[in-house]
Amino acid sequence: MIDSIIVVGITLTYLALVLWVGLRARGQSNSNLESYVAGGRHVGVVILFFILGAEIFSAFAFLGAPGWSYQHGAPAFYILAYLSLIPITIWAMGPRVAKLGRERGYLTQGDMIADHYQSKTLGMLAGVIGVLALVPYLTIQIAGAGLLFQAATDGLIPFWLGALLAFLVVAAYVFCSGLNGIGWTNLFQGIMMIVIAWFLGLSISERLYGGVGEMFSQIQLTMPEYLTMPGAAGMNWGYFSTAVLVSAFGGAMWPHLFMKFYSADSGKTLRKVSVFYPLYAYLLVPLLFIGFAGILVFADTPLERSDTVLLRMVMDVANFSPWVIGLMLSGALAAAMSTGANLAHTAAVILVRDVVGPTMMKSASEKAVVSATRWSVLGLSLIAYLFALANPSSLVLLLLGAYGLIVQLFPMVIGALFMPQLRRASVMAGALFGSLAYLLMEFVWSSPFGWHAGVWAMLLNLGVVVAWQCLVKPTLTEPTPSHS
Known about the structure:
This protein is mainly alpha-helical. The chain has 22 helices and no strands.
């Protein structure tokens, strides 16, 4: 009990510190929509690096990634494979998106789509898809926080209360401070989580096996199936490859990525961030080590839930002191909260500006829009919290599901940025058919050949776009795209 109280005390102190940093970032300019959403478009390299990095280091990174390597082995490296492609996205798309946003006043992905295709309906469709994909992603962060609290405090703080505490802290500083609060807390939490990740990854393998190399040698001798494809759980090459593709292309479509592009002070800043961005992905490596370390430790008594392997290794196997466990919990919470803040902020902005705004808030003042966005942060976070109470079975599978839906925006976004010949009706039909097909394969039918359903849906999406472009003549009422 004393150990649990020490862990709780350290963690609550950390949460209070994060809340203080987030609220301190609030300024008078946050009553202005552009400042609340895009930080006044003057975010520099360092803050932007940590904001974008928070998309990697989430509850998925501290819980899902070790759990995936523990359960599957080698297939977990799909995570590093797709993350290596993300800098290409930032380099190729970021400066273009930032330039258009500055010139035309865009604040969301839907703004760009609606303006380019001169269709508020298409912007609303993009907004609906974005919100539907962001809420499960936000759920991962809140569920992860609940799992962390419950396990690290030995049940002293139950799942529902731990998730609620993290939800309240994030919602409070995002509500008050917008992107400024997200940026400064992500800088603070980013440093925290990087240090904790490397410390745990190296110290656990050293304590249990005498080092990382020796750990893999023992796995190779006793359970070699974890070090070769298709892995222990039988993940075929088709699913591995398509998961990489869906995650890479879907990652380029996330609405919160676009909103951070708009916040950059220049295209040069974004290109600098793309160069340094792999450093953040590299820091997932020690977390994967922890999952591999658990393969032999729990060989005789497999964990009921693979997502808890990091917690079990730290608390039950490596014999760390409660002070270290408290710091571990704080670092893992930093990952969940920094990403959760980005997601809650983006989902709220999209809901108000793209989904509700064109129909219900046409004549609303800027102050009213900012107020509605702030309250939407609370509402959407609450919805994600309620979903988290359902305790999703796998954080990785939940994330892959969200990627499968958001990737359906790919044709319309590429059309708006680089292919002006794509017409409004074509990309709308493709997105609708692709999204419907994905949902059916995810929840009703099984995906052919065991591939990720998002790839089949994306192929259908592209096929519909091409067929529509070739076979359906444009109507007289369909306007020419507004920019090339």
